[in-house]
Automatic annotation (TrEMBL):
Region feature (Disordered): 1-24
Protein name: CHM4C protein
Entry similarity comment: Belongs to the SNF7 family.
Keyword Membrane listed: yes
GO BP annotations, alphabetical order: late endosome to vacuole transport via multivesicular body sorting pathway; protein transport; vesicle budding from membrane
Pfam annotation, one family: Snf7
Amino acid sequence: MSKISRLFKGGGSAASKGRGVPSPQEALARLRETEEMLGKKQQYLESRIERELAAARQYGTKNKRAALQALKRKKRYEKQLSQIDGTLSTIEFQREALENSHTNTEVLKNMGYAARAMKNVHANMDLNKIDDLMQEITEQQDVAQEISDAISSRATFGDEFDEDELLAELEELEQEELNKGVREIRLPSVPSTSLPSHPDAHCRSFFAVSTRKRADDEDEMKKLAAWAS
């Protein structure tokens, strides 16, 4: 039988109290009280050792007998102090072992409690239903993704036109605008009167204006032809 089995065998704290066995908390409290008592005894012995050492120095060679008695008492106190040190080490080790045992007991108790709770939870679960549920969740996620993709895709309403037809229509509109511009150009009218053989200043001015207007019209025709090409 393992140590843990022997630890749990025989029931809980009620059974322990019935047999007169102290609980871990009671044993730890007793050990701490013992440590405190031995600590006070250490302080007392250390003060007595200092006192006997001071007395031995005081007596010295003037009273050898008294000085030797003081040193003997100092030795006895030092021996008791060493024994207390060993006892405290043993008690400290025992207290730590008992604390660890109590901690392990509580840990195992809580782990067993959690294991029973987990078993009770799993008892109400059907693995087949869980698989069906996970499959349904996956299908619904796929449907949601398809809906999201459909909503976020670019709408194509009214885009089913032939681009070549639209370009041809645009060229026709440009040609109409070109023809319209050509028709709106007005050429200068030819004078009906005969010109004098020796034109005066007024005539020369008229010819200069006509020549300049003709040149402007020719420039306008060139610009229009260049735009059309």
